[in-house]
Amino acid sequence: MKRRDFLKFVGMASSAAVLTSCGAEKGTEKIIPFLIPPEEEDYLPGEAMYRYSACTECPAGCGVEVKIVDFNPKKLEGTKGHPINDGALCLRGQASLMRLYHPQRLKSPLKRNPDGSLTPISWEEAYQLILDKMQEAQGQGRRNVWLSGMTGGSLSALIDEFSRKTGVERLPEYELYSQANLREAYKSVFGRDEIPAYTIEKADFLLTCGADIIETFMNPVESGVQLQKAREHNELKWVHLEPHASLTGFKADERKVIKPGSEAYVLAFLLNFILTSKVAKNDLPSSVEGRLPTVTEAEAAEKSGLSTEELTHLAEAFLAAANPLLIVGGVSTAQPNGAAVALFTALIQWTLGMTDSVVDFSRSRDYSRVGTLRDVQRLAGRLNNGEIGVMLIANTDPVGTAPASIGLKDALRQASFRVALTDFADTPTARTCDLLLPLAHSLESWGDVSPRKGVTTVLQPVIDRLYDSRSEGEFLLELMQKATGAAGGQSYEAYLRNRWSRAFGAANVDKVIQTGYHEAPASPGAVRLASGPVATALSRVKLDAGLSGNVLYALPSIRTYDGRSKAL
Ligand code: SF4
Questions:
Q1: 20 to 30 Å CA-CA from 74: which of 194, 228, 265, 335?
Q2: Does residue 29 surpass a pLDDT of 90?
Q3: How far, in Å, is the centroid of ligand 1 from the Cα of 92?
Q4: Both 95 and 41 in a single domain?
């Protein structure tokens, strides 16, 4: 008898013992995996197997190594060598296993009755109900719409196809932390609706202003990994400016407390300092330079609460660095002067030549599908005007996280039918919906995410479905097939494998699934200053006096992000 066969029998014997003590029904569930030999070549009872997937707790797209024992995922770690997180994972990523096993996960489709109670129905009934309601709404001249959180990769392409074939309108994606001012600035200054990769690893002086780079800003895990590498290789100096207390601030070499809302004055002073010191690597056209606000050292000091000596010392040290890097975000861009903060930052990055090195647009994150709170306001207006028919809301909780002043919760009641694809029935958005559809966990699903240009992280099911759920991709594909009379067409796995064959080469697909990610070579293109739009954007800048009195900051949480991870 081979060793692995012997161990299977040992496993079966121990399961049989469990069966005797726990009752036949439960025991049957446990014994089946050992009676039917598993296909996995590396399976041994009680020994760990490893598979690769992606974390979907936030849009950062970290690669995940899943430790599996007896076909149950037991532990998550970062995928070693992954271009984003290289072996590391944040606490939400590690806790995302709790979402898989959470006892309150939705287990089957539920239809809401007139008295508010919920009745389980089958997926077939759910699909038919949606199709009937969509047809009814079209007959009334209403638009059926699809709203999701931030997507990328194959799922985003499928949403486009779904929208094209069914006539369902794809709304701008909803993310509370949409980095609206930063994106607007990069659009004005470089003509790109993207956020570049900040290569902290190559910097020798890092100045962060408000951006909580090791908590929730962009990809905190990647920032942490890069900070460690930069400290090992470059003797990095890191100064953080903030008006509040943050973990990021306390991790920096130097934390400078500035007055709330004064960030734009400090950065305008720094930009003037660069230009008057004649150290700019890239020039600004006179049409741009002429529109910059003149903020003197004394004014910046008065507004920020820093001394003039501190400001001069900071500016001189920053300019003396061989590879300085400036990152702003978080509280510095989400305040009345936030647009100016982002604009001055993009101009500093340009003038000091960071766009040729540490501010990397060849590895940027595409935000062109992501909306802002203005889009949520627009949606509320359309709902209140009775324009929206069926509202399909996938894996996002705008009612729970968008400001209550927008009135989305009440506006949603004006849609003719509301559907939520969600893992919990008790979210504020799900509570307003007529039909709740159980969302599969990422560890139960095929999929991919594209956290950065050229990087694809692949998701594969590492456990059989615990409940009668669907991933976003499966739901879209099945609904599209039924709506277009192509029911029973290809599965989502087949759809993905076709796309991956085209993207990675057919011979490489299984290898990519095994390693968990694919990285294409970067194709750096020249970054150019869009003089006209910058001048227009600068002409709109009117520096607000700053915030006065006591200021309350409502901050993203390292523990729950925008609230989506609070169940973990
Ligand atoms: S930053 Fe954390 S929550 Fe976000 S994808 Fe990475 S591990 Fe997951």
A1: 228
A2: no
A3: 6
A4: no
